[in-house]
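Module 6 notes. Inverse folding takes a fixed backbone as the condition and produces residue identities as the prediction. Think of it as a translation problem where the source language is geometry and the target language is the twenty amino acids. Below is one complete input and output pair. Work through it position by position during the lab.
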């Protein structure tokens, strides 16, 4: 069994060679172990840990995601986007799916091109994450995102348009947050918050 305290110690005292020791714990059954693995990777302090930390943004456990978000926030947006580009170019589907998900935290016209590049990858997880990121970009007002969403996912675009034009009791438009919280995809809900 994994010892969470020992993992943290490895992270605090370790360096790049210990990355390969900690990464397998990101797939452990225990959310506490996965969360501690993210934290330990952060303590190592190497940019080589961040593709794995970014992958943890997709974890179903809130503590794991929170540790990953906390770790990524110390990076500059430029460094984060550079890492996401490397993940997309890696050729590894799991890294590409994680990059598609993580891009939802960085909605911009420039990053839309990265999302579009992921649409050409024939993998369901990559496509689902790219679609959810397009929805987030559209809700955040990234100009071309709505067009890309309509071209590639017309049903989702219609659903989003209908939801965002719905009326609340006093005739006011619902906020993007309220619309996002109704979305069936947990990733869309998480990124909107």
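Target side of the pair, the amino acids:
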């Amino acid at each position: 069994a994994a010892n969470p305290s020992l993992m943290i110690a490895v992270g605090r005292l370790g360096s790049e060679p210990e990355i390969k020791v900690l990464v397998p714990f990101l797939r452990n059954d225990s959310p506490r172990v996965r969360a501690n693995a993210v934290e330990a990777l952060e303590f190592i302090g190497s940019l080589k840990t961040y593709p794995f930390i970014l992958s943890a943004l997709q974890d179903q456990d809130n503590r794991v995601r929170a540790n990953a978000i906390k770790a990524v926030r110390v990076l500059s947006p430029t460094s984060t986007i550079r890492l996401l580009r490397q993940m997309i170019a890696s050729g590894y589907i799991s890294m590409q799916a994680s990059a598609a998900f993580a891009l939802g935290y960085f909605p911009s016209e420039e990053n839309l091109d990265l999302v579009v590049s992921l649409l050409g990858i024939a993998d369901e997880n990559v496509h689902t994450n790219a679609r959810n990121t397009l929805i987030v970009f559209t809700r955040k007002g990234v100009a071309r995102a709505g067009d890309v969403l309509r071209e590639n996912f017309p049903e989702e675009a219609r659903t989003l348009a209908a939801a965002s034009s719905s009326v609340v009791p006093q005739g006011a438009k619902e906020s993007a947050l309220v619309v996002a919280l109704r979305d069936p995809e947990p990733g869309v809900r998480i990124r909107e918050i």
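Reference fact for the lab report: Confidence is low (pLDDT under 50) at residues 167-173.
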